[in-house]
Specification:
The chain is an alpha+beta fold and 250 residues long. Helix content is 33%, strand content 30%. Bound molecules: uridine-5'-diphosphate (UDP). Uridine-5'-diphosphate (UDP) binds next to β9, α4, β12 and β15.
Length: 250
């Protein structure tokens, strides 16, 4: 089946063996070894999985939000794994080798940065900060630096440089795109991988699960912090982000 046909198919028709299941997503093989089916789930976890719950229709909202932002980034010349949105809550993505690293970029102090460095949440950082974390649930995703990455051979120095360069470009592009939707990009987590041709690409998802989005006018939190902090109206926040992205489409 060609990619265009696969995108129109019922996900059940092309769903092969499960290759990965995380907290919020599952990945399945397809008949094409270079293409995976990515399912966005309604499950939500926080605080290293200590808090568990379901956000109704989150899978649908996240699939559409991530599709919107990945399409935008691809259009701006960023290499991503995204190949297209299927019905409901599925993407087709390029099969990549993931680096097992999380890259966090921060424009405004919040979450673990505010806690760790004793900063007030909402402090605008004079310069954005980029951090690396090891993707390892059993170790609670420890904070690491380039020396740890080299010692653990997670990627080459060139690949690390490529990831960081992409992360900075993505920061400018996404901040600008979200501002058009009256959303402030506070911080976010990216994951990268390498495709069979050796190209470093953005993988994973760009959603209110992995980003902090604040209403630029009111400062309202429109992301997973509503779940983490029991702020209520969690589903509404995800729906609002999708609506605003759709309405502000160029
Ligand atoms: N983040 C994520 N997955 C993680 C850790 C963090 O998607 O395993 C995102 C989180 O949603 C936020 C940013 O990365 O947008 C920075 O998170 P932080 O380090 O502040 O941790 P938190 O306090 O959210 O646990």
């Amino acid at each position: 089946m060609k990619l265009e046909q696969m995108l129109k198919a019922n996900p059940d028709e092309i769903r092969g063996e499960k290759v990965y299941e995380g907290k919020a997503k599952a990945l399945f093989r397809t008949e094409d070894p270079s293409i995976l089916l990515m399912e966005f789930k309604d499950d939500a976890t926080a605080f290293d999985g200590k808090k568990k719950g379901t956000i109704v229709e989150k899978g649908y909202f996240n699939a559409h939000i991530s599709a919107n932002l990945n399409t935008y980034l691809e259009g701006q010349g960023i290499a991503t794994h995204y190949l297209g949105l299927m019905r409901d809550r599925f993407h087709l993505v390029r099969h990549m080798d993931m680096f097992g690293l999380e890259v966090v970029v921060r424009n405004i102090a919040a979450g673990s940065l505010a806690r760790r460095l004793g900063m007030d949440e909402g402090t605008v950082l004079p310069k954005p900060i980029l951090e690396h974390y090891l993707k390892a649930d059993e170790l609670s995703d420890p904070w690491i630096n380039a020396y740890h990455i080299a010692a653990m051979d997670l990627c080459t120095p060139e690949q690390l440089e490529a990831m960081e360069e992409l992360a900075w470009k993505i920061n400018l592009l996404l901040s600008e795109r979200l501002e058009r939707a009256n959303l402030t990009l506070v911080d976010y987590k990216l994951e990268f991988g390498v495709d069979p041709d050796g190209v470093v690409r953005l993988g994973d998802e760009i959603t209110p699960d992995t980003c902090r989005f604040w209403d630029s006018t009111t400062g309202d939190k429109l992301d997973k912090d509503r779940f983490r902090q029991d702020l209520g109206r969690v589903e509404d926040a995800y729906r609002e982000v999708l609506d605003r992205l759709t309405e502000s489409e160029a």
